[in-house]
């Protein structure tokens, strides 16, 4: 499954990032990642913004099909773009080892922080 292959680097990254940053700071980093990848005009991640900005996050090895796959997997409301919440949920889903922890955070914090 292409998405799981594409997510391999994320799986390696996240647990060590959480250890280093702590859970709350890690969620902040995810939000920063969203801001880096989004189209600033509309505040959403689109295929074009993902392609344009992905090198900022060291994702320059990703191909068009992987971007399409990521958008399709993460787009929960079907508008063809990723909102901040959709992006954070996708990042957690791409890192299976984090799912249990993220469920605990959801219980502790109720929800992920939203951009003001
Ligand atoms: Ca969406």
Automatic annotation (TrEMBL):
GO terms for molecular function: calcium ion binding. It holds the Pfam family EF-hand_8. PROSITE patterns: EF_HAND_1 (PS00018), EF_HAND_2 (PS50222). Gene3D superfamilies: EF-hand. Keywords: Calcium. Residues 62-97 form the EF-hand domain. PANTHER family: CALCIUM-BINDING PROTEIN KIC (PTHR47319), CALCIUM-BINDING PROTEIN PBP1-LIKE (PTHR47319:SF2). This is EF-hand domain-containing protein. It comes from Beta vulgaris subsp. vulgaris (Beet).
């Amino acid at each position: 499954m292409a998405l799981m292959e594409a997510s391999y680097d994320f799986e390696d990254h996240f647990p060590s990032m959480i250890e280093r940053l702590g859970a709350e700071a890690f969620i902040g980093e995810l939000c920063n990642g969203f801001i880096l990848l989004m189209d600033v005009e509309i505040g959403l991640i689109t295929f074009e913004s993902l392609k344009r900005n992905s090198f900022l996050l060291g994702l320059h090895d990703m191909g068009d099909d992987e971007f399409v796959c990521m958008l399709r997997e993460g787009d929960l409301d079907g508008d063809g773009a990723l909102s901040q919440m959709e992006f954070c949920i996708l990042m957690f889903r791409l890192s299976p080892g984090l799912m249990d922890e993220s469920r605990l955070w959801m219980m502790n914090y109720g929800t992920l922080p939203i951009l003001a």
